[in-house]
Every structure is written in C-alpha cells, then in structure tokens.
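A reminder from the course coordinator: this example appears on the midterm review sheet, so study it carefully.

Given structure:
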C-alpha cells in the first residue's frame, strides 16, 4: 500500500512552517551520478528553493563511481546533523547488494526522508523486431528461448535488473548484453544489434517521440502521462511486474527527528514549486512527494525485492 500510495499520491503544495531546526552552515546535496543526468537535474532544480527555505547555501556535488556506491558511501559516513543529504537513486539501494564486501547497508545506514520522484521505465525494441505489441513481444520471446538479447547500461544497471526481473517472473531465456551507459545501448538497439531493453524514460523519450524506436509498454504499475497509449507490462502480460527508478532524499542514520522533519518538509516544498514541476515533467519524471514513513516503507520493500533478484541471479559488479 505504501508503494502504491507513492505512485498515486497527488502532489499538493505544502504550507512551509517557520521555526524548528535550522542549519548552521551550507547544505551539501550529494548526487552519486555525473552532472547532466536525471538525478542531477532534479537536485539542481530543487536547490534554490531549499536554500531559500533553510537560509543557508545549498550546493550540489557530483560524487560518482561504482554504480552510485561512491557518493552514497560518502553520505553514509557523514555526521548525522542535517548538513549532508544524499540524492538517492535506486542504484544507491542496489549497488551494495552486488559488492563484496558491501561498502554500506542501504537500509541500516540511512534515514529516508522523502520520495521525490519516480522515473518510469519503458520497453523498447529494435526497429523491425517481430512484434507490434507487448503481448506479441512476450509471446515471441517465450516461444524462442535463447534467441533474443536485451541491452543495458552495464551489469547491475536498472535496465539490467528490469530484464532479470522479467526473466525471474516468466522463466524467459534471454541473453543480457551490457554496455558502458544507456547511450551506447540505445545506439546498438537502433542499429539492430540487440533486440530490446527496459530502461528509464528520459533516456529514450526523444527517440520514442521521433518514432526511431518502437515503444511497447511501461514498467510502472500505472500508465504514464507522457505516453498514455502505452500499456503497462503488468496489465498486459506479467501481473505484478514493476521496474522503475526513483529519486529520494536520504540522510545519514542517526539524524535527529527534528532535523529529519524539517528536511522532509523542505523537500516537499521544493518539488511542489511550479518551475520544478514543469522542468521535471518535461524530463520524464513523475513527481511524488511523501512523508518519512512512506519513504522508509518503500525503501524496505525495494530492498527485499531487488536483493532477492540479485541473489537469485547471482549478479555482481565486474571488478
């Protein structure tokens, strides 16, 4: 219920209370991916509004590496005083499950403050793939074990995990082909050298709109406003299938209640601003504010789900 509530909850503009905890120095928003990506965009849209609300400079820092583990590890080790916040993505949760030893525990070492946004995924095929609908795609894949390949931006990438979830739920025999990032995987898909992928909408949105790549379905539980004609995988062929990315604010574990409450309030205020809503929607985000309890429940559910898939499929980062 918490997971469904995060996807369905309307984004209301909160009344920002005065008082409570106030920072004593600048705030750092740590983004564990390079500048220019989707999480970075959302962080930079939110930063001016958070700065105005908190009365201190809010700086975005990109600390990349190890599938989000480097930046996430930095925040896990910081003092729990509210001055360092992780702009957490799904890879912040899944990366340590694929590392031995794990550099941090994504559930135990953080305090989730608020869901900020869902990044939908979309199933796209190469041009000329022998299916015109998600039902036909599913039927063809099931009827031809070992014939088809699915692309991702690398081992452990969300597109890889989405393909593994489909494989685990259906028994499909498909071959994973990892690339160094989403862009080369889409290039190879366009060229017809791989058969399909299930990746985040912002990466493929322009190619879908230009009809350069066929889009058959989305990986969220509900259809999305950007492409309302696309069915969900769950409603069409695999009931219960959900694979999507998300962005949250996480603070180090041990952050005091008053600090967490204030930061959760500020996050909700920032994503409710008209400029943030407009730019984020254009980038393919579904903005979804939440309270701390719902954010924590979502993290725990995602950890159980993806941890199981990673263990069962024996997915480990390549050294």
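Designed residues:
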């Amino acid at each position: 219920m918490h997971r469904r509530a995060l996807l369905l909850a309307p984004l209301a503009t909160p009344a920002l209370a005065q008082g409570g905890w106030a920072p004593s120095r600048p705030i750092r928003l740590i983004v564990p991916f390079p500048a220019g990506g989707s999480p970075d965009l959302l962080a930079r849209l939110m930063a001016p509004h958070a700065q105005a609300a908190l009365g201190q400079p809010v700086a975005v820092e990109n600390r990349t590496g190890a599938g989000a583990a480097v930046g996430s590890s930095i925040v896990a080790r910081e003092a729990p005083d509210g001055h360092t916040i992780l702009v957490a993505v799904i890879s912040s949760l899944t990366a340590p499950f694929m590392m031995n030893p794990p550099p941090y525990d994504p559930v135990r070492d953080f305090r989730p403050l608020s869901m900020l946004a869902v990044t939908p995924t979309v199933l796209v095929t190469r041009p000329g793939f022998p299916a015109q609908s998600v039902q036909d795609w599913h039927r063809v894949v099931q009827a031809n074990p070992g014939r088809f390949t699915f692309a991702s931006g690398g081992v452990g990438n969300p597109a890889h995990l989405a393909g593994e979830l489909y494989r685990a739920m259906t028994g499909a025999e498909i071959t994973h082909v990892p690339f160094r990032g989403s862009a080369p995987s889409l290039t190879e898909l366009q060229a017809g050298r791989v058969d399909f992928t299930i990746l985040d909408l912002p990466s493929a949105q322009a190619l879908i709109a230009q009809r350069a790549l066929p889009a058959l379905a989305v990986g969220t539980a509900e259809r999305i406003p950007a492409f309302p004609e696309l069915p969900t995988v769950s409603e069409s062929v695999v009931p219960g299938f959900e694979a999507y990315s998300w962005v949250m604010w996480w603070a180090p574990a041990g952050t005091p209640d008053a600090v967490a409450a204030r930061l959760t309030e500020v996050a909700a205020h920032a994503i409710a601003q008209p400029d943030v809503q407009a730019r984020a929607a254009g980038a393919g985000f579904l903005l979804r504010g939440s309270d701390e309890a719902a954010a924590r429940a979502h993290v725990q559910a995602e950890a159980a789900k993806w941890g199981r898939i990673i263990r069962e499929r024996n997915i480990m980062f390549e050294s």
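Residues 24-119+244-313 form a domain with the D-Maltodextrin-Binding Protein; domain 2 fold (CATH 3.40.190.150). Residues 292-313 form the longest helix (22 residues).
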